[in-house]
Amino acid sequence: MPALVIVGAQWGDEGKGKIVHYLSRGADFVVRYQGGNNAGHTVVFDGKKFALHLIPSGILFPGVHNVIGNGLVVSPKAFRDEVLMLQKRGVRSRGRLHLSLAAHVILPYHIYLDTLREEGGRGIGTTKKGIGPCYEDKVARIGIRVCDYLEPETFRALVTQNLNVRAAELSRIKPVKAIAEEVFKDYDELRKFLAPFACDTSELLAKARGAAKNLLLESAQGAMLDLDFGTYPFVTSSNPIAGGACVGSGIPPQAISRVMGVTKAYTTRVGLGPFPTEIDGKVATYIREKGGEYGTTTGRPRRIGWLDLPQLRSAIRFSGIDSLVMTKLDTLSNIHPIKVCTAYRYKGKKLTSFPVSRRAQLEVEPVYESFPGFSGDLSGVRKFSDLPSTARHYVEQVERLAGIPVSIVSVGQSREQTIVRDARTVWA
Ligand code: IMP
């Protein structure tokens, strides 16, 4: 009855969606534990491309149950639209998509507040989906949970109270009365739509554990966007690290049997904030175009950099990652040489992990080691031994520098383009 946690080991967009989807076949339950529709998972299934933002990619396998845990912030409209999008493409969610009664709801005013802050000089490059303001309400103990949303009187009272609290700020966008009308406009329809999906997911998962089911818990975003351990304040407002899996789903720590971290063969980040190994110029453009490095949620071009071992080592420590999944190795083909940051120099000292201070995060100088590149199209390779020797060497050097194994290598978006080096990490 393993509970496997899959975390992003960088700044998000590592390709978790594909890996979760790959491992979903052997799972009984796939659980999202934090974030909201700020995430973007692109999954190719039966030759069809799906962009999922909120619903776990396990939904694409008919027998798998999917949970949106209490740790999420859920826009009822985004939830409905994603369920309908799947339905239109032949994927049924009813009966196997479970929404926590304790998750918080994102309402239009959260999106307005997010936009106001982003455009008012305090921006960090958010996705403008209302994520931060909704979590602020949760922490301020004025948030509205799914269980409140489903009770019209409670909902009305809470919305009125919250719009009063935020009135001064919101009136800079439009009259609060107009915002209230917007909140209530589709409310009845959305409430009825959500109701059959909502339940006590913590209890559901406890029963699943009792029945020896396989659980796969997936983070959105990545370690360096973690509210506590990331590049604060350029972070998201929840905890993608493995500890967040317990808080955001209700399963206890001792239930977690394994943690896998997903990293690209290089690094990307969207939004503002420190990025020690960022590069510009021809190599960055090549990687961005070849790797399709544009945000799934916002379409923004991603910032590009070399693989950063001090950053990765910290991510391994934050989550207790047992093994790595390296994605997009194929994208590095034809780059000679490939550089990897093995340490930072800061104020005359050598650092081997990511510093906490925001100043140090900005000022560290990467120390690089170069490895011979490889050429050709790797996307058809299915066995590690069939990779060019320099590609294998690259993966092995990353293992050595990170101190843990790379158990899966991904060379393309589709399920088949996956090289499993250690079958123990795959349960089907
Ligand atoms: P928020 O989550 O929309 O509040 O944005 C906070 C930070 O997290 C910004 O830098 C976003 O670009 C980043 N972010 C949020 N979701 C993702 C994601 O799924 N992938 C990569 N970056 C993300």
Word description of this protein:
With 428 residues, the chain is α/β, with parallel strands linked by helices. The protein folds into three domains: 3-99 and 198-255, 3-Layer(aba) Sandwich (Adenylosuccinate Synthetase, Chain A, domain 1); 104-192, Adenylosuccinate Synthetase, subunit A, domain 2; 262-425, Adenylosuccinate Synthetase, subunit A, domain 3 (Adenylosuccinate Synthetase, Chain A, domain 3). The protein is 32% helix and 20% strand. The protein is built from 15 helices and 21 strands. It has helices at residues 16-24, 76-88, 108-119, 131-139, 146-149, 152-165, 167-170, 176-185, 187-194, 201-210, 243-247, 282-290, 309-319, 358-363, 389-402, and strands spanning 3-8, 29-32, 41-45, 48-52, 65-68, 73-74, 97-100, 104-105, 198-199, 215-218, 258-264, 267-269, 278-279, 303-305, 307-308, 323-327, 338-346, 349-351, 365-371, 406-410, 418-420. It has a ten-stranded mixed beta sheet, with helices on both faces. Strands 15, 17, 18 and 19 form a four-stranded mixed beta sheet that branches. α2 (76-88) crosses α9 (187-194) and α3 (108-119) crosses α4. The radius of gyration is 21 Å and the shape is globular. The mean pLDDT is 95. Bound molecules: inosinic acid (IMP).
The fold-level CATH name of the largest domain is Adenylosuccinate Synthetase, Chain A, domain 3
CATH superfamily of the largest domain: Adenylosuccinate Synthetase, subunit A, domain 3
User: Structural class, please?
Assistant: alpha/beta
Low-confidence stretches: none
Quaternary structure classification: single chain
Mean of all residue-level pLDDT scores:
95
Order of strands, main sheet, comes to 9-7-5-2-10-1-11-16-20-21
Cα radius of gyration in angstroms: 21 Å
Dominant shape: globular
Largest sheet: 10 strands, mixed
Q: What separation lies between the terminal Cα atoms?
A: 13 Å
The figure for the number of domains is 3
Number of strands: 21
Q: What small-molecule ligands were found? A: inosinic acid
Strand content: 15-25%
Task: Classify the helix fraction into a percent range.
Answer: 25-40%
Q: What is the CATH class of the largest domain?
A: Alpha Beta
